[in-house]
Amino acid sequence: MTTPIDGALSPTSDGSALRRAYSCFPTGVVAVCHQAGDQSIGLAASSFATVSLDPPLVSLCVQNESTTWPKLRIAPVLGVSVFAHDQDAECKQLAGAADRRFTGLDLETTADGALFIGGAVAQLSCTIYNEIPAGDHSLVLLKVNALRADPVQEPLVFHASTFRALERKKATTPQ
């Protein structure tokens, strides 16, 4: 049986309804960073997704108004850190004021400048593969060149405008 929903849908021009709908989908939360000499540059992104195995690609979306992305865009390599379930404070700090983003954080860097947040569940050394304008954001495709990961650790998840941790579903036995 099909039930009509006439009038029950909100128009996309209603920004609060659109944000509420988008918040229904959980996303991974990452730091995207680069170390240039003694200057650490980075941002937090909550629109991270895997894209392809061949070539190895991941994606994220960056606001067009970002003042940090133009600095990262020209970096030869970017470090992507997938936050662990207990790193919500680090994520909030990285999303805050640029002059305090890295204060007191446990940081790791490669010789070529990929900057990572220590304790992250995965660390991906990436280069920009493509950047596509997408409304008020840019869709950024990153090619993964090297990585390390600990899938046993739980990641931080952004859902319904808050940080969450995953919970393993209990297996049910057939009766």
From TrEMBL:
GO terms for molecular function: FMN binding; riboflavin reductase (NADPH) activity. Keywords: Oxidoreductase. The keyword Oxidoreductase applies. Pfam families: Flavin_Reduct. SMART domains: Flavin_Reduct. Residues 22-165 form the Flavin reductase like domain. Belongs to the non-flavoprotein flavin reductase family. This is Flavin reductase (DIM6/NTAB) family NADH-FMN oxidoreductase RutF. It comes from Williamsia limnetica.
